[in-house]
């Protein structure tokens, strides 16, 4: 299967990097258009495809991304890809758990249990629960939870949390809140289940403010990246998202753009994608032979580096910490 996707091209890294350097954004979008048809792809934006996307993409995540089960982007602050970077986000969450003496922790969009298992092992005195909308993820993560009495997973929707008010000291979500259709509703639910003084820790992609001011080419590239990962309404502009957070009562404690730390992972995936797209006829054939959302991941692989790299960046990747204020007596 791997050879089918990437072909029999020579895998000399300098050769691959030269192909990438010589390809303009317009040329990259033209390749996507020839293989997939951009107009047809963008017509699916109004559909909720989260569950079929993750079911169909499971093999690719396991093979090309993280055999250990991470489905988020690695953070490599030294500029060199290392799989240990997949543990960076849960380590940062762990620092917040220790700093705030959290004892009940909820993970939103818990995926295959990668983050939960790591944290449950590191903090055996903390109770962790993870929710995810995809049944396959709950099946896989529940198996991972068996060695940890302080960890459980259940199917659930973070837009309608089935927990009582003030249930958790800390809630976190890694690359999942982008799938909500109503950020204010989702954030209000999180606010409700947090105790006073509780924290919400988020890692996610956002559009830069004033997205409409970007060139048509960059807007198209950004929308294709979002579509390929079935982010239904596109990534939120951070200014709008933060205003929604404040409107439900959150205080913004910290915001940091970590785009440079995800670039090593993004550029690694682009090298795989370029091998797929360089043989346009084989790529076209594979769109008929392989699951739709599995194969469309190649679009994000090819185009996302263009959207993240200066000087014209349409996307950011933020680490955010929000606080639910203590009730005033």
Name the features.
48% helix; 15 helices; 329 residues; seven-stranded mixed beta sheet; alpha/beta; Rossmann fold
Strand content: 15-25%
Q: Provide mean pLDDT, rounded.
A: 92
Our measurement of the CA-to-CA distance between the termini, rounded to an integer number of angstroms, reads 62 Å
Q: Helix amount, in percent?
A: 40-55%
Helix-strand sequence: HHHHHHEHEHEEHEHHEHHHHE
Q: Number of folding domains?
A: 2
Q: What is the architecture of the largest domain at the second tier of CATH?
A: 3-Layer(aba) Sandwich
CATH topology of the largest domain: Rossmann fold
User: What is the highest CATH level, the class of the largest domain?
Assistant: Alpha Beta
The secondary-structure class comes to alpha/beta
Poorly predicted spans: none
Work out the helix count. 15
What coarse outline follows from CA principal-axis ratios?
globular
Question: How does this structure look, described?
Answer:
A seven-stranded mixed beta sheet has the order 3-2-1-4-5-7-6, sandwiched between helices. Helix 9 crosses helix 11 and helix 10 crosses helix 15. 48% of the residues lie in helices and 16% in strands. It is of the alpha/beta class. Strand 4, helix 9 and strand 5 form a beta-alpha-beta unit. The model has no long low-confidence stretch (mean pLDDT 92). The chain has two domains: 123 residues, no CATH class; 162 residues, Vaccinia Virus protein VP39 (Rossmann fold, 3-Layer(aba) Sandwich). The radius of gyration is 20 Å and the shape is globular. It has 15 helices and seven strands.
């Amino acid at each position: 299967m791997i050879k089918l996707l990437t072909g029999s091209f020579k895998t000399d890294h300098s050769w691959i990097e030269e192909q990438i350097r010589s390809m303009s954004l317009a040329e990259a979008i033209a390749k996507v258009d020839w293989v997939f048809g951009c107009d047809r792809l963008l017509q699916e934006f109004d559909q909720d495809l989260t569950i079929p996307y993750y079911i169909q993409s499971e093999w690719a995540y396991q093979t090309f991304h993280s055999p250990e089960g991470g489905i988020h982007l690695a953070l490599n602050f030294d500029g060199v890809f290392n799989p240990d970077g997949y543990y960076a986000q849960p380590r940062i969450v762990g620092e917040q758990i220790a700093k705030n003496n959290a004892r009940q922790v909820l993970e939103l969009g818990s995926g295959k249990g990668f983050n939960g298992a790591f944290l449950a092992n590191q903090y055996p005195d903390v109770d962790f629960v993870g929710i995810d909308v995809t049944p396959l993820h709950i099946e896989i993560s529940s198996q991972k939870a068996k060695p940890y009495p302080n960890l459980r997973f259940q199917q659930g929707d973070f837009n309608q949390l089935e927990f009582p008010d003030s249930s958790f000291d800390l809630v976190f979500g890694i690359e999942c809140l982008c799938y909500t259709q109503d950020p204010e509703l989702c954030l209000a639910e999180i606010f409700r289940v947090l105790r006073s003084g509780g924290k919400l820790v988020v890692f996610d992609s956002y559009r830069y403010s004033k997205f409409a001011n970007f060139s048509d080419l960059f807007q198209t590239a950004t929308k294709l990246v979002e579509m390929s990962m079935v982010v239904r309404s596109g990534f939120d502009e951070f200014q709008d998202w933060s205003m929604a957070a404040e409107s439900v009562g959150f205080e913004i404690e910290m915001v940091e753009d970590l785009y440079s730390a995800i670039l090593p992972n993004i550029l690694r995936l682009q090298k795989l994608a370029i091998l797929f797209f360089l043989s346009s006829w084989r790529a076209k054939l594979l769109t008929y032979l392989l699951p739709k959302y599995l194969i469309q991941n190649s679009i994000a692989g090819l185009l996302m580096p263009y959207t993240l790299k200066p000087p014209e960046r349409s996307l950011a990747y933020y680490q955010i910490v929000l606080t639910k204020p203590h009730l005033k007596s």
